[in-house]
Design brief:
295 residues, alpha+beta, Immunoglobulin-like, 2 domains, 9-stranded mixed beta sheet, 4-stranded antiparallel beta sheet
């Protein structure tokens, strides 16, 4: 820029000069005329051309100096369950604007969005990163969404095998927690078919506590802990467990739990006497809709 300023000051002066061998009419008595060396004129002409060239290419230089955006991201999981939050972490460079397409009809303009899928299958999540001038770059990841892990519990009376409606069903992580009623994972109530469904469970064993005004599973648990203990939950399947209960005459409505003194019928029973556990993947959508989401 300093060269440009100096040359701009020189141009008016040079325009006032005459070519070499010209006659100065203002002073005919001078024995020698003012002359401009031709080498200086050539130098000025060359510098003017440089100035014009710089003005022409400068916009292209500035444009080419802008860094190209690089889109990149990662997720906390590539195989989430239906309904599970997926954290998308943006690791792009030289970008000021972002557009996300999660592949299921939903989009976002947040830098680091959180999204969950409502159906199973493979979805291509695409991130488009834009620079300040609108240059863009894309990155994508395939998300394989699994069916949710479900546990369907049916509460059934042991002797007459009728289902029990309105029973409280609680899940505990250990037998000690079940006995002390501590650290409950979740609670639900059976419907008219004696069923309650839990979803978003981990691949663990759970201990099932059942209580209803005239039914519980406490005496059965004392006979065989298998009556209250599920097998290890299979991920991405419908796990089914039958919670057998006894008909019990609680002394008053709302009696405290684990009162095992009022069992009317009793004999030595084993959990292996009746089928209790199964798992499959059919009809998971209807079960998931009515399930209790375990956090």
């Amino acid at each position: 820029m300093a060269h440009i300023l100096i040359l701009s000051l020189q141009i008016p002066i040079l325009k006032a000069m005459k070519p070499a061998n010209s006659i100065n009419k203002a002073d005919k008595h001078e024995s020698k005329n003012m002359q401009v060396p031709s080498s200086l004129l050539k130098s000025v002409d060359f510098k003017m051309k440089r100035i014009i060239y710089l003005f022409l290419v400068l916009p292209f230089i500035v444009f080419s100096c802008e860094s190209t955006p690089e889109a990149h991201f990662f997720t906390d999981t590539l195989d989430p369950e239906v309904g599970q939050d997926v954290l998308f972490t943006n690791d792009s460079h030289n970008a000021t604007k972002f557009e996300w397409d999660f592949g299921d009809g939903f989009v976002s303009s947040e830098a680091n969005p959180v999204h969950y899928y409502t159906a199973s299958g493979s979805f291509e999540a695409v991130l488009t990163a834009f620079s300040r001038s609108g240059i863009s770059d894309e990155a994508s990841i395939t998300i394989d969404v699994q069916i949710p892990t479900l546990l369907e519990i049916e509460v059934v009376e042991w002797y007459d095998e009728y289902v029990v409606e309105g029973a409280s069903v609680r899940l505990y992580p250990t037998l000690v927690d079940w006995e002390g009623e501590d650290n409950m994972e979740s609670e639900g109530f059976t419907d008219e078919d004696g069923l309650v469904v839990f979803s978003n469970l981990g691949p663990y064993v759970y201990y099932v506590d059942v209580w209803e005004q005239n039914h519980d599973n406490y005496d059965l648990a004392a006979e065989d802990v298998g009556f209250i203990r599920t097998s290890e939950i299979m991920p991405h399947k419908i796990n089914r467990f039958t919670a057998w209960v006894d008909y019990v005459e609680h002394t008053t409505k709302g009696d405290g739990k684990h009162d095992r003194t009022m069992v009317i019928k009793k004999l030595e029973r084993k959990s292996s006497d009746k089928s209790m556990i199964s798992n499959d993947t059919e009809d998971w959508k209807a079960l998931y809709e009515k399930s209790i989401k375990v956090k």
